[in-house]
Automatic annotation (TrEMBL):
Similarity-based family: Belongs to the ABC transporter superfamily.
Name recorded for this polypeptide: ABC transporter ATP-binding protein
Taxonomic path: Bacteria, Bacillati, Actinomycetota, Actinomycetes, Pseudonocardiales
Keywords annotated in UniProt: ATP-binding, Nucleotide-binding, Transport
Record-linked SUPFAM superfamilies: P-loop containing nucleoside triphosphate hydrolases
Entries under Pfam families matching the protein: ABC_tran (PF00005)
Organism: Saccharothrix xinjiangensis
PROSITE patterns in the cross-refs: ABC_TRANSPORTER_1 (PS00211), ABC_TRANSPORTER_2 (PS50893)
Limits of the ABC transporter domain: 22-253
Cross-referenced InterPro entries: AAA+_ATPase (IPR003593), ABC_transporter-like_ATP-bd (IPR003439), ABC_transporter-like_CS (IPR017871), P-loop_NTPase (IPR027417)
Amino acid sequence: MTASTSARVEPVGTGSTPVLAARTRGLRKVYGRTVAVDRVDLDVPEGAVLGMLGPNGSGKTTTIRMLLGLVRPTEGEVELLGEALPDGVGDALPHVGALVEGPGFHPFLSGRENLRRAAAFEPLLATGSVRQAVEDALERVGLGAAAHRRYRGYSLGMKQRLGLAAALLVPRRLIVLDEPTNGLDPAGTREVRGVIADLHAAGSTVLVSSHLLSEIEATCTHVAVLHRGTVVAQGELAELLQSDSSSLLVTTPDVEQALTALRAGRISARPFTADDGDGGVRVELIGTTAPVVLEALVRAGVAVHEARRHRTGLEDLFARLTEAEEAEHNLSAVDTIEEGTR
């Protein structure tokens, strides 16, 4: 895949009020007696890379379908690029590129021929620009050398790349990618990360659905965690991870003195050694606060070189938000309905 050369997508709106590329309120989808999505309030800030994260059957794909007007909600409201759906779908969708579940192309046509067919239906792409747009998109996803091959001979990863190319035929205000690294090898996964970074740099909003925690943490600025059909947490990734921190790392050469001072104050602490060789104490912020900890150390004459909150990883945050309920309910009804509709 090559670096993006597409024009920058300028955000709409002014002032300090956050602009949303997509928004849902009270979104609900019921299939028979099964609730697939249950009152989802989702905000996708314009210009963000939002990772929609959740276990299989959490309602991610069903939510995306409703967000794109592919499925009508049982209840709730959907707003896409400032347009209320379903009435505004015709105005919004030309500015949206999407790869949902698996791409669907004609098996007997080549990758290039399939992409030209898709480009011919792009309302924002002039007829005279189709050929160049197709070639640019193929090169961008690393399919230039295989564009002449028939689609039926493509591997799963190549099919994913062609679907991504179709989503990138013209500059988009919003790109929606449902499991974009499915079937890709590590090199292809890194290339998709690069494409997402290019889109973000160009001003596009990107919504990425994935169950791979490492990919979300590596590429996204925001995250929404779904579980059993509802959003259990959402916001800026850095803030969510910081808010989940429950310990303070204090770098000091006086480790034993620090432990003695903290234990005298009934503050839980233990030694730690950082990757760079520096050491100190890790203080559990249970029943205490960072200022109280630092005051106790300073009063005891402990040399404090640095104090920082321990940054929780996304895996820890995700486990905390989902494991308790998953253990209680085991397999949710959403798993059955969402897999059955694919």
